[in-house]
Amino acid sequence: MLQISIKKSQNIYELQENGVEGICHASYVIQENKKSGIVTVTKSKDLNKCQEKIFENQSSAYTQLCETCQLKGKNLRSVSTYSYAIRNTEGEAVIIEVVSKETHQFTPFNELDGAAITESRQHLVFLESKEQSPPVPTEHLAKRGTLRYQFSNELQQMPMQLTRPSNNDTNKIATALENLIQMNQERAHPDAPRRFLQLIQLLRSATLENLQSIWEKNARALDHRRWIWDTLPTAATPEAIQFIQTKIEEGELRNGEAAKALIFVLHSINADCHGVDNATVLLSSPYMQSDPFLRRVTLLAYGTLVNKYCATLRVCPDEALRPLHELVVEAGSRGHEDETILGLKAIGNAGQPSSLKRIQKLLPGFGTVAGSVSNRIHIEAVLALRNIAKKEPRKVQAITLQIFMNKRAPGSLRMKAFIVLLETQPSLPLIVIVADTLSRETNIQVTSFAYSYMKSLAGSSEPELQSLAASCNIAIKRLNQKCDALGYRYSKGFHFGTFKDKLLAGINANVYLIKRSEGILPTTAITNIHLYGLGVSSDFLEIGIHIEGEWRKNQPHQRGPRNERIARKVPGWKSIPTTKPLAVAWIKLFGQELAFAELHQEDLQELKKEKIERLLAKFIVMLQNGVTMHWTKPLLASEIRHIVPTSLGLPMEMAFYYTVVSAAQAKVKFTLRSSNLTMVQLLNTSIETDVQFTSSSVKDVIAVMGINTPLIQTGVEVQLKTSAVIPVNFTARVNLKKSNVKIERLPWQQEDQLFSARSRAFAFARNIEDLAAEKVTPLLSREEFRLMNSELSLVKNSTLDHQDAMEKVLPLAIPRGSVCSAEDTPDVPSPTVHQACTSSNTFGVEVCYKTSMENTAFTTDSPLYKMVGDKSIEVTIKPVTTSIAIKKLQVEFQLHRGNQISAGVHHLMRKSNGSDSAFSEPTPLDGKLALLKLKKLFSGNARHQEGANANIFQLRFKPSESSLSENKGRLSYESSSEPSSRSRMSFSSSSSSSSSSQQSLSLADSVPPLFSLLTRAITVDNKEKGYQTKAYIDNSMEQRAVQLFVEELQEGGSWRACIGAEMPNVHRAVALLKWGKNCQDYKIGAKATTGHFQHHPAVLVKAQWDKIPQTLKETAAIVADQLAGIAFMLGFSERHQKSAAHQISVIAAATSQRTLDVVVKTPKHVFSRQSIHIPAPLPFNVNSPSVQQRGLLVFADLPDIISATSTAECTVVQNQFTPFTKDSFEYQMPEGCAHVLVQDCTPELQFITLIRRSAESLVVQLYLPYGEIEIQATTKGKLQLFINRTRTPIASLPFSGLRSLVIERSDNGLKIKAPELGLEKLSFDGKEIKVAVVPWMAESTCGLCGRSDSQRRNEYPQPNKRSTNESLKFAHSWLLPGENCKDDCKLMKRTVKLEKSVKIHGQESKCYTIDPVLRCQVGCSPVKTAPVVYNFHCLPADSHANPSDEQLISANFGQKSEDLTGPVEAHTACSCPSECS
Q1: Which of 850, 825, 836, 833 is nearest to 786 (CA)?
Q2: Whose CA is closest to 1309, among 1283, 1282, 1271?
Q3: What secondary structure letter does DSSP report for 491?
Q4: Are the beta carbons of 1031 and 1044 closer than 8 angstroms?
Q5: Closest CA to 356 of 330, 319, 393, 331
Q6: Cα angle: 609, vertex 610, 615; to 5 degrees
Q7: What are phi and psi of 572, to 5 degrees?
Q8: What distance in Å separates the CA atoms of residue 242 and residue 279, rounded to the nearest whole number?
């Protein structure tokens, strides 16, 4: 038991002891009773502190231990104690008694609020001893090694059900399968999830012969096939995998069945060496290789399997990763970008450090291969490091930090690297290095993203991020506060999170918005959710989408041969690949990428050409044949298990199961007047549809803690069962030609349960010998709950001693006089049943809900105690008995066109109180109609002048003058000029000076309705009741009004709702809502007015009410109580100031295109905030007089904010060039030599713009696939236009050509537009050239204007994709050399040899410029030169004596590494003899 030298002076010993649970920390206490001669040895083991702990986990590989989350409490604690009584008898030590107790305490929340406990006890007493030796066993004994527990088939048996083993498992499987099919024919049965789990368990113990027998019997039955292939992959036993593989190879599975089986089996397979071997065989299946989508998903699933398999290993075997590594290497060698990305995603799922070297080869700055692959591969390689960072954070930090600090790398790549870097939770020094880098950063997108994300993280409260939050807090203080002013047009990173100590759980979310240009819409948006709970953390969900640009609306273009010849004149020019997809979307669950989808331009073209026509034809055939569908889908969404051995030798298990069974049944019948319809005919015919559809879903969430063996099961189970049903049954008649839709259904005939949920907690005990005697005991029975409820109520009202009474009710009550005793008695449980209903007699339907709650939360207010008990909620819908039975319910929608008004819809306006208008006020006593004019909004506000005080609380809104003028209108939102009088609101008509002339108030008398909507019930006597809605709109310049009326249909009904809005002029808009009896009970009005606020254009919006319902008042009071706190959180200042009652006003002033001043006035407070940054600039100049002239019409431009992308512009003025990146430089172009100003740098070459300067003129040439446009400007500024080398008079403009080409005059120059080809505009006035491209050309342009992605750079891109800091070298690279000395351009390009010899690595070498240098043509001499810094690559001195340019080009000399850097004299002007060749 204990072999240790015992010291008399020491009674306590600390040891690391090997036992059943592993090597655990043990404490021994030795006590000796000298009188009795008994020595008591007490041993205690902390089972949470074990080396090589023995346990078995399932589906926990995706979580990471969160040690900081457990600082204030642990979810699981385990301890065991053993007491040995030893008596020394006749010189021998005899153990006379042993008492052992092992305790496992678990709670999903904080242990201080209670926990569930599983205990094992043993008590052994020495009775007697016999001298006879026990018989020696004759059977062979197997050597078991140590005392450690060895797992066998514990995972095969589910803890919530016990199944007796049998030799006839085939019949059991067949019976369970048949039961599931029968009980889910119409709806998902409440017991279906548990039966589904039972079928899974049976399949896990089935042999290959069992599976084959089941398949042969049910292969032809559709329902049986569906259930088999939904269940068998979840079992994922070796027999199941072999069976699936065989059936796929034999071709017995349909495409959908095979895809579903492969995907689910790879995610469910047991993560061991055998499972990996089986998965490798599945990967090589010919069927999987033939389906690209299936291959993509299965490879990702294989990476996930490797992740689970290697989670428990110190080193992941190379054999498991070899398929993924070989895929990346092979795809990279062949230049297959899509395959390389797929391999990187799968490697990212695997997340093993042994993949680091292969990933690094594809990252810029780490390998030579990185320079030849696209930025998409760079980004995927960086993202593949995320799971690796969980095992090797330091190595990943070094890689991502280097990429982030590499300013040559694209901004999108650097921002993704920053995301991965912060996920590794770097130390404070690394975070400070990042801040120091940002202080010198020139890419504003990277700066904005990194700063915003660190600032957001600095306020996080999650324990796991406390160190990172503190580091980020220091870092942002070292940066310029101007970073705070960067608006939402730049990239942003956001972090939101919370952690509750009481629950020991938390959640956080990160949102990444990565932008390429200064627009409101990001090019990449990523959202991920991280969960904390049960002492671990996990990346629960991530959804991302990346959009490359706008989708091209035309067919793929054929590039012109002229454009190709021009591009090839630029030495070393390389096109930008256009194979990148238009959009990419992906989804990750628990850090594992499940699937991703790509949309290419070719997909859209194919869809436009063929698929739409085929789909429409199939749709029409389906309409004619009708649709009948029955669908079921079971899913084991989660199975998490944790098993540990106990001192009794029985395994203790904690398990969590989440099971879903969904079912849908639909019968849709279409009736068409004729057959063989085309789509055009279909749109002009009437369709009648009968729809019967029922969708249902049952979910079981089960948590179990207890003993689980094949023989006995005992423990505690918490179960949550939910059920939802959506029944739909109607007949629809659609007539698209007449714009009419009518939907009918029968009234509700019987009660139907729409939703139910029930949570129970109970103890269970099962024995394989007698399964029928299963014992289930609620932890809190209803009888016990009611008894405690009753007795506690009596205690509260009793005059007797409370303590005596409490001790009778609660046996565990604290004794009287205890120091910790409390004065207050426990709260009496609140009523356990609540129910309420809302009914509509009009439509004969009633919706009810009922809740029941019986738990022990009244004894201890903790989350765990709230779980214990029986709680339920039900939502039902049922018919209501009416005086006259309802025959049918009907909804009819009629969209009116012109004067076509449905004859079935009668006139809405009814006379009330002698008035012809629904919006008129009651008639006065003299019988004349009171006509109200449109007046000022509120008393005194129209007369307020702007105050001289700069305090924003004292400033006043000044309306526009035209808004104060009298304007004819229908609506009046009128108030008395006296502040104390009650404001009055009404709909009224304008009137002339004659009181007898009246103008109609309703648009119904002047314009047809926009639409009408009837919602009615038709009774058996063919009478109607319900509601009718009509909308009218008048967009004429005089009216600008809209009205909507709702009224009851039944006779005598007076409830109506009247809604109207009108814009009498561009500076005022009025709206009014009235409802109740004849629209007179309640009124709410609003008005918007334009004007000035502190010299800035502003809008004032006021809301005012006379009388509103009580429920609305109560809601408004709740909002008002919280308003001050909300305003404070949003950064508003507050001032207590009484304003007019029953009104709220908001003033918004545009102080700039990106900032607003806002003032909010309520009856008791004034809130204000200045310089609020808005996400996107306003689409108008706030200082322009036209803003005031347009008034409220400027809001029509607000949708442009979404579509605007702040297109970059490139300009050339004299010798000053300003590229898209705004990094201007000076450059004097060599005379007569053309330069590429900007061009489509994709292989399509849709446009090329050249610029050429001579002594007499400046020429701009635009080459398109179908023509050439040239604009010449003489030194005097005169412009000449040539189209296809034919002079075109400027007076004849505008000119329109193919593919959206437009040439027009603008100001003092000409403007060319070709947006379909990517050219937004090219303008030239003889002195200044301006170029802009469409947004989808971003990152696809090159030339002197550079790339059009609006990102500032310190480098200029050259034709060969290299970058340079030298502006002169950059400009020379885009020069088009002449053919010979007779050309206008006397320059050519050639490689130049370094005149002096150098030693490279101790070897004599000769060096040549990597990029060609400007030189005069053969036979010409230089007149002007300029020093330009070039890079050199060196060759051994004994290589080719003098290699020619052709030899260097053939050797890809332009891609060689840089050995030296030095100045070279480039020729910029040449003199050639008159007779040269």
Answers
A1: 833
A2: 1271
A3: -
A4: yes
A5: 393
A6: 130
A7: 80, 5
A8: 10
HSE-up of 241 (CA within 13 Å, CB side)?
A: 22
Long-range Cβ contacts of 699-702 (<8 Å, 24+ apart): 699/193, 699/658, 699/659, 699/660, 699/723, 700/193, 700/194, 700/657, 700/658, 700/659, 700/660, 701/656, 701/657, 701/658, 702/160, 702/655, 702/656, 702/657, 702/658, 702/659
**CB burial string 1309-1344: b at 16+ within 10 A, e below:** bbbbbbbbbbbbbbbbbbeebbbbbbbbbbbbbbbb
Weakest mean pLDDT among 57-71, 224-238, 1080-1094: 57-71
Contact call for residues 1105 and 1084 (beta carbons, < 8 A): yes
The pLDDT score that the predictor gives to residue 978 is 35
Residue with tokens 């004894």: 859
Q: Given the DSSP bridges, would you call strands 1295-1296 and 1302-1306 parallel, antiparallel or unpaired?
A: antiparallel
Which amino acid belongs to residue 593?
E
Residue 241, C-beta contacts closer than 8 angstroms, at least 6 positions apart: 265, 269, 278, 282
Q: How far apart (Å, rounded) are the C-alpha atoms in residues 1141 and 1144?
A: 8
C-alpha torsion sign, points 323, 324, 329, 332: positive
Q: What is the rounded distance in angstroms from the CA atom of residue 163 to the CA atom of residue 710?
A: 8
Give me the residue label for tokens 């053969």.
1418
CA distances from 438 to 434, 441, 451, 476, 1222 (A): 6, 5, 8, 10, 20
Structure-token match 């009652």, residue found: 1141
Query: Structure tokens of 756?
Result: 């139910």
On whether the pTM is more than 0.70, the answer is yes
Under a CB-based contact definition with an 8 Å cutoff, are residues 865 and 855 in contact? yes
Are the CB atoms for 386 and 393 separated by under 8 Å?
no
For 351, list phi and psi in degrees, rounded to 5.
60, 45
> In this structure, how many other beta carbons lie within 10 angstroms of the beta carbon of residue 448?
25
Bridge partners, 255 (sequence order): none
Element (H, E) at 659: strand 651-672
Which helix (H) or strand (E) segment holds residue 247: the answer is helix 238-249
Read off the amino acid at residue 299: L
Q: Among positive and negative, which fits the CA dihedral 884, 887, 891, 893?
A: negative
pLDDT in tens, 855-882: 665 566 778 888 887 889 999 999 998 8
**For helices 255-268 and 222-235, what crossing angle results, to 10°?**
20
Instruction: Please give the single-letter amino acid code of residue 1110.
Output: Q
Q: How confident is the model at residue 1037 (pLDDT cuts 50, 70, 90)?
A: low
- Calpha distance 821→816 (Å, rounded): 7
Instruction: Please tell me the predicted confidence (pLDDT) of residue 920.
Output: 36
* Sequence-separated (6 or more) residues with CB below 8 Å from residue 1101: 1086, 1087, 1088, 1145, 1146, 1147, 1148
> In the Cβ-directed half-sphere of 551, how many Cα atoms lie within 13 Å?
11
Residue 1259 is encoded by which pair of tokens? 């020429």
Q: How many other CB atoms are there within 10 angstroms of residue 540's CB atom? A: 16
Which DSSP state fits 1273? E
How far is the C-alpha of 1327 from the C-alpha of 1213, rounded, in Å? 6
What count of Cα atoms within 13 Å lies in the side-chain half-sphere of residue 244?
34
Cα–Cα distance for residue pair 287/703, rounded to 1 Å = 39
Alpha-helix residue ranges (DSSP H) falling in 506-637: 561-568, 601-606, 612-625
Name residue 1049's amino acid: L
Q: What is the pLDDT of residues 1415-1471, one digit of tens each?
A: 999 889 999 999 999 988 888 887 765 666 666 655 567 667 788 888 999 999 999
Burial of 70 (0-12, 13-18, 19+ CB in 10 A): middle
CB 629 within 8 A of CB 693: no
β-sheet bridge partners, residue 886: 1019
User: Rounded to whole angstroms, how far apart are CA atoms 251 and 285?
Assistant: 12
SS3 162: coil
Does residue 771 contact residue 164 with C-beta atoms inside 8 Å?
A: yes
411-423 and 428-439 are packed helices; what angle lies between their axes, rounded to 10 degrees? 160
User: Which residues are registered as beta bridge partners of 670?
Assistant: 689
Residue 1404's closest CA among 1392, 1396, 1412, 1414? Answer: 1396
